[in-house]
Amino acid sequence: MDMFNKENQKALKEEYKELLKDVWGNDARMINYCLKKNELLIKTEEGYILGIEKQGIKKDFCFGYRLNSHDTDEYDAANRMANHVQSDADYFFAENMKSFRAWIKEFSDKDNRFFFQNHYHRQANDILKNVNCVSSFYPETSDMEFISENDRELILAAYKECADRHSKKITTYLKRYGTSKVRSWSYWEDA
After folding, report:
1. Are 169 and 57 in contact (CB under 8 A)?
2. What residue segments make up the domains of the chain, in order of their start?
């Protein structure tokens, strides 16, 4: 998509940077932090700017078990998983793609209703936005501004693009390190 090419992202980044000055004033460190944490920026039909955050590569995995005086099944299963993860590249890949897959699933479901929400509480402008899904945590209210179908498709395309980029990053990581840097352990949940 044209919005995701380098030239358009560079222009959006400059616009985003100027808008961040309304939020952070002259705090260059916070402005740079906010700029760098986004993989892609999107401009909606309404002129709002949304950021899709970069995802790191998860290398630490922990598995809990509960104490049971009658058997040790949970303990054994947690320890088996902790050992298994250290050599299973497919599990590593799937766990690192989990958040993007969840967002893609959410935006693919046409029954879900999404609304805009200001990104920062103290922003002076109304252009920097987040998108949330109507749910029990965010019950529908009369003042919600719902996203259009075109914006939903644009956001879905952005998440797919970010997922593709992240997938390449994980694949490169696995080629270089394999699962040698994976740390995993089990822990007692009841403690």
Report:
1. yes
2. 2-188
